[in-house]
Structures are given as structure tokens and as C-alpha cells.
Prior knowledge:
Blueprint: E1 2-7, H1 11-21, E2 28-31, E3 60-61, E4 74-75, H2 97-103, H3 110-120, E5 121-123, E6 137-141, H4 147-158, E7 174-177, E8 179-180, E9 182-183, E10 186-187, H5 190-195, E11 204-207, E12 211-218, E13 221-229, E14 232-244, H6 250-257, E15 260-261, H7 263-267, E16 275-276, E17 282-284, E18 288-295, H8 308-317, E19 329-333, E20 342-347, E21 363-370, E22 377-380, E23 391-393, H9 400-417, E24 428-431, H10 438-448, E25 450-451, E26 477-479, H11 494-509
Parallel strand pairs: 1-2, 1-14, 2-11, 5-6, 14-26, 15-16
Antiparallel strand pairs: 3-4, 6-8, 7-19, 9-10, 12-13, 13-14, 17-22, 18-21, 18-24, 18-25, 19-20, 20-21, 22-23
Helix pairs in contact: 1-11, 3-11, 9-10
Amino acid sequence: MVDFVVVGAGASGCVLANRLSADPSVSVVLIEAGSSDDHPNFVVPVAGGKFFKTRYDWDFDTHQEPHCEGRRVYLPQARVVGGGSSVNGGAYVRGNRADFDEWGQPGWDFAGILPYFRRSEDNERGEDEFHGVGGPLRVSDGRAGNPSSAAFTAAALEAGYHHNTDFNGVTQEGFGAFQVTQRDGRRASTASEFLRPVLDRPNLTVETDLEVHRVLVENGRAVGVVGNRLDELVEIRADREVVISAGTYNSPKILMHSGIGPAEHLRGFGIDVVVDLPDVGQQLQDHPHVWLSFGHDKPVSLLAAGEPEHALAYERDATGFLTSGGPETGGFVTITGDAPDLQFICMPLMISDGFLSPPSRHAISFGASVAKPRTRGNVTLFSPEPTAKPKIVQNYLADPADLAMAIEGVRISLELSRQVALKPYTLDAIAAPASGTDADLADFTRRNVLTGHHPVGTCGMGRVVDAQLRVLGIESLRVVDASVMPAIVRGNTNAPVIAIAEKAADLILHPGS
């Protein structure tokens, strides 16, 4: 028997394990379905994509997407200690302050969550109103120095957009370089920054390769979890709380297999209903993203990252192409309203087959995500078997406003490709619309939309959990991960998930604070 069982050692779970176990009177078990992050490639930022469709990936995909020509869109999800923070592109972008204010949940507006961003952060630029120092998470300026990425920013300025040196500061709009979660050119994941330094605490236990199937509920209270390791059932009991931090796809799946979810759906799979919560698995959001790729003849794409000069630079002073997580530069553009509608990302590599085919030539890729999509999808069960993958329907571009905004992102990307600064890197189109007509832009968008890798919302605050992240109708059970976001943020999700976990630790250890 332990005090707290945390399910999922991802971006949020590692933070929770650190903060909860800081109290020596508290015992914590952190459970991860995947393996340790001890593979050397987890340290090298450029290697993140190498784990797609391996044992370190849940290897999800969508059901046939009705508004994207029936395609099944690949949804990589890290199955490793550190979760997405161990494999992502590393861009440190929190979202817009309006996102948190619009959540409408007490204590979760921008003023309420900013202290937790600052607490987690150790920014190499130093401390100011928006940034912190001394926290576990190292945030740094990029070290790749890629000229094609810099040319993307120059093209945006040439096209009339303004320069932004801090997307997490006074304003989000504009173009520039992303800060990244790196320490001295090495990946800074929640595993390396929050978990590994405290593994010697006697009150913290980490269990890997243990897939949790369901929460044990007795008399309306969560008392532990049941899972499987090497075909052996394992039960771990919790004296105080169970915290589910399994991610936007797996957290609702675990709840549903525990009898917590839409009653009719659960009964259809022979699952006894513990609490009828219709919104479990609903209100799924992601950033639909469309990439354009252009070939060139300069040896400055990440295809060259394995060349001796870059290996030497990385070993010598942790600089060069091996420090690139992919997204190096980008920006935000407002089309309507007061907050950005589009997030642009530039990567110095060829994108082919949704990142599944290795680049075959030097190229640059850039494009836009719909920053605040209106479309909602869902996560439901495919099978009564708890090891089966969930059924995921994103409904990308179902709302006409999302399609229109995605097309505008493609249109602006084409405009940037024609600027003088990018001419050396856009010699020929690898993936681009046949023309600039509305029909060709729409056709290209539907055929090429991919995940932005930012799923949220399936256990949202106010619908599945309360503002203390407690599951409605069940005692001693919380959800702490991206699934609790009431709506998606305009930006990447790693940073806000870490802040959510920081705040959750306070809510758990200091209720009423």
C-alpha cells in the first residue's frame, strides 16, 4: 500500500512524481506502460522521429477521417518514460494568455497558471515577468544555426510580418526562433529534468513495462489500479489517491474500462457502469497541420545531420544540426479577432509520407496549424479488451471555418515560399498545391492535413473533472495531463502540461491553497 499511484510517466507524470515525493512522509508509485528512456538517442534532439512505429510508440491512428478523403491519420504517441517530452521537437511554446482565460475554470486563468510556468522553468535568458530560473526544466535558445531556418524568418519579415524573439512573452504574434527544452544542447525531458534527479528518494518507486488496465473502485472511491506486465496481472493499492496521467488517448480509455464514462457505450462492451460520465472521451481537439516541402541543392537540411562535421560539433560543444529537434523557427498570425489563428512551423528537412519515410534529398518544410480549431472529435472503445487500441476520430476540418483557416495557412505558406530570402531553398516543390486556386488549395489541404501532435480535451475540466482535477462522482481519483484542458491552446502542449502538473501537485498536497 502506498499513498499515491500515478499512472503514466509522461510529461505530467514525471513532474507529479517529483513534486509529490518531495514530501518524505508521502510514498509514490509511478507506473509507465513503456520502457525506460535510457536509449542514447533520447538525449539527441534530432533523433526524436526515430522512435515512430517502434516499441516506444503506441502507434495510434485515426479512424477514417470523413473530411480528409477517408484517410487514416497516423498519431504517434510516446510509450516511454518522459512521454512526449522524450521524443518531441522540443519547441517551448506555452499558448496564448487568452487560452487560459477562456477556460473559465477557477484558478486556471493566465494569472493563475503563470506562476507554475515560472516555477518549472530554468530559462537561460534569465528571470523576468514571464520567465523563471532555478526550476527543473532547462529552456534554451536553439543551437542548430541552420541557415534555411533563418531564411524562413527572413522571408516572413520580407512579407511584412514582424519579428518576435519570445513567443511566451508580451505578445505571441510574429515570426522568429523557438526556444527549446534543452540543457547544453541535449534534450531536456521531464524524465531527465524532473524524474532522474530524484530516483534515489526512498519514498518513490518507478514501475516500467506495466500497462494499467483499470482503476479499482470500491464504494465510490478509487483504491488502486490493475495492470499487466509480461502477461501477469499486477495490482497496486493506493491509500490516498490514484492519479491518471496517461495522456489524451489513454486516460479516457482507462476510465472507460474502469466503468467511468458514457453508460450506454460501456454497456455495449459488457463493462459495468460505476459512474455515468457522458463526456469521457468526448471533445477531443488537436491542431490540424498542413506541411509544404521544397527541395534544394544545399547541404543544410537535417539529411546532413549525420555528417562528421555535425557529429564533431555536437561532441565538442553541443552545437550543430544534431541539436535540432526539427521545429527551429516559426510564428503566429492573426487573421480574425485579437489572438492568433495560425501557428507556422519551419523544419529543415523533407517531410514525406507523414514523417514515416526518411528524407531522400535536401529540403525545407514549413506550414501552418489551425491554432484554435472549432472541430471536436472523440475517443471511444473498440473492444472490451483493455489492451486494445482505442477508436480515435479527430474529425479534422469538419467545421468549414477550420477548413477555411487551414487553406489560409497554405496560402500564406506559398506566399512565404516566393520571398527572396527563401529562393535558394525552394527550387522545386516536393509537396505543394498544384496552383493557387481555391479548388487546388482546398484539395491539397484535405489530402495533406496531419496531426499537430497536440491532442487535448477528452477528460476536460468542468465536464469530466472539476477545477481540482478530481473525477466527478468518484473519490480519490484525479486526471492530470493534456486531456483535462477544456479547450486547446494556441501553441504546443508540452509546456502547459508541465504547468498543469505543477499546479496539480499543489492541489493534491495543499488542498484549498
